[in-house]
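This is your field. Have a critical look at both lines of this record:
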Amino acid sequence: MYFDSFYDIRLGEIYKKSQCIEHECAVVNVLSSMLTHLGYQKCLENPRAWKKNHRTVIVCLSDDFSVIKSNPAAAPEQWFDSHTIIITDNHMPWPTDYEICVLPLSYFGVFNYTPAEQHYNPTHRFHLSINRLDTQRLLFLLEFTKQANGIQPVIETDLINFNARATGAEKTSQDAKNSVSQCWTQLQTAHADLSTWYEQILPHMPLRNHNVTVEQAHISAYLNLVIETYAGDASIAFSEKIFRALVTPAPWQVFSAKNAVQRLRTLGFDVLDHIVDHSYDTEQQNNSVNGHNKIASFISKGIQNYHNVRQMNQTVLVEQCQTAAIHNQKLLAKMQRQWPADFANWLPQIISKLQ
C-alpha cells in the first residue's frame, strides 16, 4: 500500500519546485570540502561531525542539532563541550558553552516556490498530515481523537493522513497496525486514560481518508495543523512543512519548538496573526510526560481557531490569506536571490574560526 506516490514525500510539489534537498546537499558538500581542506576528518560514529585535534565541528542543516547532542542529560547550553562548533540553520535563543555559527537567514530561500494551488476553498474542518510514527506523534493523534469525541467525527469532518510508519519497512496495513501497537506500549502506562482512543484508532491504521494531494488538502481545510519535525524548548528548526503553509493561502497552526512562530515573525513572515491566535507558541514542551500538556493545549487552541475562522466573512478570509501568502512568497524569493552573496560573505568568517 505504501507504493502509492502520495507516501513518497520527496515527490511533493515543494520538493520538486524548490529543489530544497538538492540545495541543502550542495551547501553541506561545500562545507564538507572546506573542512577536509582545513585538515578535519569525518567521524565514523557521527556522519555530521568532523574532528581535528581537540576541536569538533558539527554540520547540521534542517534537522534540529539537538538530536546529535553529546550530553543528552545536560541543559541545552551544555549539550556539547566548549571545543565544539555547530554550523546550522537552527536558532538557539540563549548563550551556550559551545559556539553556534548560524547560516545567513537568506538560506531559507532554498524553500522558495509558489504552489499551484492558490484558490482557498475550505470544505473540511482540519487538515492533518503526519508522515512518521513515534510516541509524540501517536500521542498527538490520540489527543486529537479525544478532543474530537471519537475517530468517526475525525474521519467525517477532517482531512487526515497518519501513515503509521515507524521504521519505513512497513508494507501492509497490518504492518502499520503492528507498529502503532508497539509504539503504544511505550505510552500506555503513563497515558492509560487514552486507551479508549487507542482502541478506536487502531483498526483504521494507517489512516488516510482522502485521495487528494497535501497541497489540495491545504486549501480545502479551514485550519491546517502543521506538525513540524521537531518540537522542544530550546533550538528552533524549520523544514519544508512550515514553508509550504506560509506560501499557501490558508490558515495554519504549527506544532514546533517553543517560540517558533515568534521566530517566523522575526524573519519577516506573515503568520496570519489577524486570523489565527498563536498563543500556543509559548507553551513548554517538557512540562508533562511526552509533552502531553503542550499537545492538548495546541489542539484545544486549534479548535478555538477553527470556530473563529469558520465565522469569518468568507471573502475577507480568502483575501487576507492570499495577501499573506503572496507576502511570504515574495520574501522567500528575495531570500533566494540574496543567498549566494550572503553565503560568500559569511564563509570567510567561518574559515577563520576553523583554522
Observations:
- Residues 92 and 235 are 4 Å apart (CA to CA).
- The longest helix spans residues 314-354.
- The chain has a mean pLDDT of 95.
